Amino acid sequence: MPIDATQPYDDANIFARILRGEIPAKKVYEDTHALAFHDINPQAPTHILVIPKGAYVSWDDFSARASDTEIAEFVRAVGAVARAAGLVAPGYRLLANIGPHAHQEVPHLHVHILAGRPLGPMLMQ
Known about the structure:
Number of strands: 5
Radius of gyration: 14 Å
Largest sheet: 5 strands, antiparallel
Structural class: alpha+beta
């Protein structure tokens, strides 16, 4: 069910539990401010999620409350993951669903990296 990205952070969400080590994840990258791991329900041959380690519900929340260092390192992490996975030359899509109209399902900011085949139009009618 889509969540309301304006609600307070829920530290029982699945990504918070992954960050605490309560739920396993197939990690591909980790640094001080970000964690990347394979999506358990991939929508493309390559489907990696990148999350900030801080408690942020949405891009709006993150951009308003995160430090400049957290923001810069999160953006750098997304690029590092795409490069390490060999996705730059063939291309990839970044997707961040924010709020109920975009169908955000986990109330923790996350960016999807989708690749591995032609992905078609950005929005389906």
